Amino acid sequence: MKAALLIIDVQRDFCAPDGAVTAFGADLSTIDGTVDRIDRLIGAARRAGVDIIFIRLETEPELDSPAMLRWYERQGIDPLVAAAVCRKGEPGADYYRLFPEPGDTVVSKTRYSGFVGTNLDEVLQKKEIGIVYATGVTTECCVESTVRDAFMRDYEAFVVSDACAAYEEELHLYSLRVMALNFATLIDTEALLAEWADIEEV
Known about the structure:
The chain is an alpha/beta fold.
């Protein structure tokens, strides 16, 4: 069965020291190590012929979710500030350290899940992909949302546990636990690299 590596939201606003989440007090201490591991996985995926799909958030004011804006208000958060993350065409929406190459697929989204309002499902079906390996940020939000939706669409969903990150280690670990309990198989970077190395040798 064919597989794809999903790189979810590795963008400046979520990962860079000058990104939007830093202003919200996010701890980025685990981000660069996570990106290093994703980079290794991308190289191995290319050598093994595994499809690579970059999933990125690109927001626009007119497409902001009214439900999300009201949710921010209930949390006491200024919705105009909180929603202005990864605005299309602005530096915060740019990739962080990892970039698509010719032959890779790019999927742009406006919600947490890579499947909502996008062509991701169509892309996977057209490529006859039945297995997805999820990486990226953040574990408990956009990664978990995408993995949950993948499973509900009958894809075999794997999460590379040390190639995704949250801004709080407790949230990262709890999300991994929830996903493993309900809909995902956890695998770490070294184990997946070994699997793909076997494919390279065939």
